[in-house]
Design goal:
By secondary structure, the protein is α+β, with helices and mostly antiparallel strands. The protein has five helices and 15 strands. The chain starts with a strand and ends with a strand.
């Protein structure tokens, strides 16, 4: 619970094929218990589901896409996302637990508590300098990290947040991508170090997913509502938090990994995966990967 006092938290950590438990004691003030009390590298529980965590450079990431909320059909997701509670879609229902849920941008920002008057395509919630109006966004239900006017907690658990464009850039630098500002799908680096899905050409020595980020080809849904099938197209995309400046009234930044930016169906197995940075319509459905607060 959230009662004051000293509490014992049991954190699970996998060692090979075995799971060990680590007992730690924390001093808790009212409403401060949160999954960030467990050390990075352990498995946290959120909304009844388990999420492993991994340290990559200076950052602590969830090693799994978020999969919380009530599942609805992809056809209805855009229509119900402003209803109370969190709604998610799944491209491949049997693999939803593995790939995670797909979410609208509004759902991601508000954690299921968006005001019905919140229109993310309206410029009124942005200042003349194109910065985001913090007070107005809070009034619409956007859930910020406590004490921050930049970081968005959204649907992430307490102690975690939606990674910003800059924070995705830190991950990219760690894997050898040097240009964090340019948009496009030609951002080369050791992208296979983020991927579980691979083949013998990329990973002749099994050197995929060396970071432990554990990304799968989960697909996505583009701004027209057309499902991009999981696995077959070798693509996955994640939402970013609010950029501080820039952008326009109808799009938000996503990060993604793809195999071939020109023809994803005819894949050359010798081509290494690429990291992408793009703007997409906010009526698109993307995955969420949470980042631990500093």
């Amino acid at each position: 619970g959230n009662a004051e006092g000293v509490h014992e938290v049991i954190c699970r950590i996998k060692v090979g094929k075995h799971t060990q438990t680590q007992s730690i004691q924390i001093t808790v003030e009212p409403k401060t218990t949160n999954p960030a009390d467990c050390p990075c590298g352990t498995t946290i529980e959120y909304e009844g589901k388990e999420y492993p965590t991994v340290q990559i450079g200076t950052q602590c990431w969830m090693a799994k896409n978020l999969n919380v909320g009530d599942r609805v059909s992809l056809e209805n997701l855009e229509n119900v996302h402003k209803e109370k509670g969190v709604q998610r879609g799944c491209i491949d229902i049997p693999k939803c637990a593995q790939y995670g849920g797909l979410y609208t941008w509004w759902e991601v920002l508000c954690g299921g508590e968006c005001s019905a008057s919140f229109n993310a395509s309206n410029m009124s919630w942005r200042g003349l300098d194109k910065t985001f109006d913090y007070n107005l966004l809070v009034s619409y239900g956007v859930k910020y990290v406590p004490g921050s006017k930049v970081d968005i907690q959204g649907i992430c658990p307490d102690g975690w947040h939606l990674p910003s464009d800059n924070e995705w850039g830190i991950l990219e630098k760690f894997i050898g991508i040097t240009d964090q500002e340019t948009y496009g799908w030609d951002r080369k680096g050791d992208v296979k170090s983020l991927m579980v899905s691979g083949n013998s050409v990329w990973c002749p020595s099994g050197d995929c997913n060396t970071t432990g980020f554990s990304a799968y080809w989960g697909g996505y849904v583009d701004k027209t509502g057309t499902a991009i099938t999981a696995d077959a197209t070798k693509s996955v995309r994640w939402w970013s938090g609010l950029p501080i400046t820039g952008g326009n009234n109808a799009t938000s930044i996503v990060r993604g990994i793809t195999m071939n930016p020109t023809d994803v169906i005819k894949i050359d197995p010798s081509v290494l995966p690429l990291m992408g940075k793009h703007r997409v319509g906010r009526n698109s459905y993307m995955y969420v990967r949470c980042l631990r607060n500093n």
